[in-house]
Amino acid sequence: MARLPRLFLPDFPQLLRLQALPHLRAFESREQYARFLSLLETHARLLNVQVHAYALLPESALLLVSTSQPGTLGQWVQAVNREFVPWRMQGGGSLWLPRFKSTVVQPGLWALRAALWVDSAPLRAGVSSDAALYPFCSFAAHTGVTKDKLLTDLPVYFSLGNTPFDRQMAFRQLAEQGIGEAATQRLNAGLEKAWAVADEAKLQAVQATLERPLQPRPRGRPRKV
Fold first, then answer.
1. What is the DSSP string of 132-187?
2. End-to-end CA distance of the chain, in Å?
3. How far apart are the C-alpha atoms of 180 and 93, rounded to whole Å?
4. Which of 102, 75, 82 is nearest to 36 (CA)?
5. CATH code for residues 14-202
6. pLDDT digit string, tens, across residues 44-71
7. Is 174 exposed, middle or buried (0-12, 13-18, 19+ CB in 10 A)?
8. What confidence tens digit (pLDDT) does each residue in 66-109 have?
9. CA-based, 20 to 30 A from 109: which of 146, 152, 157, 185?
């Protein structure tokens, strides 16, 4: 089966994951985490990439971003890794699986769920019991514990309250409630299989403009009309 091209829809945030090779850890020291974050910021500024949420884990990097052009996401990842991988691997060797995972997420509620899902990654991975204390994800910035110049808030984030404090408290409360198992599975499956994460009505409206399918087609023969 031919590989589907990467999804890109104007104004849709993009969710992506870089996964280390099975026998490697992507990050083994605070210096390595800090170096990767610095490169994300540098090349995001150069390529006009907006980073809305991130979580760096020992074996992976999970990000929610926005770009204005279809090829920018790949250019950004390549630019970061041209500097990070040789430095991390001391000049030679591969670090990541060859192709990073990515998909698009509907603006609004689904984008907010995606940000919450990214920020809870350290808890799911078991590397932290409190995301606010984990220094390599964006939860602390979203809840007012720290400030992070790498981040650009999603438009939907501003609907959480009239003041920064209100928005930070609302985000924390949403994180404590969780996004639910159905949304969690939808985001994970969408990222793994490169299917768009959006409401059905939105998918149908957008699909009419695209040749590439946004969701898996029903199994079996098409229904007769």
1. GG-TTBSHHHHTTSS--TTB---GGGGGG-SSHHHHHHHHHHHHHH---HHHHHHH
2. 28
3. 39
4. 82
5. 3.30.70.1290
6. 999 999 999 999 999 999 999 999 999 9
7. middle
8. 999 999 999 999 999 999 999 999 978 899 999 999 999 999 99
9. 146
What token pair was written down for 112?
Answer: 């907010």
Count of CB atoms situated within 10 Å of the CB of 70:
13
- Write down the pTM of the prediction: 0.91
Q: Tell me how far CA of residue 39 lies from CA of 32, 76, 209, in angstroms.
A: 11, 10, 35
Annotated domain spans of the chain: 14-202
Strand order in the sheet with 101-104: 50-57, 60-66, 14-19, 101-104
> Which amino acid is present at 3?
R
For residue 4, pLDDT over 80 is answered with no
Residues paired with residue 18 on neighbouring β-strands, in sequence order: 61
Phi, psi (deg, nearest 5) at residue 158: -70, -15
The radius of gyration computed from the CA coordinates of the chain, to the nearest angstrom, equals 18
SS3 84: helix
Read off the tokens for 74.
Answer: 């790949």
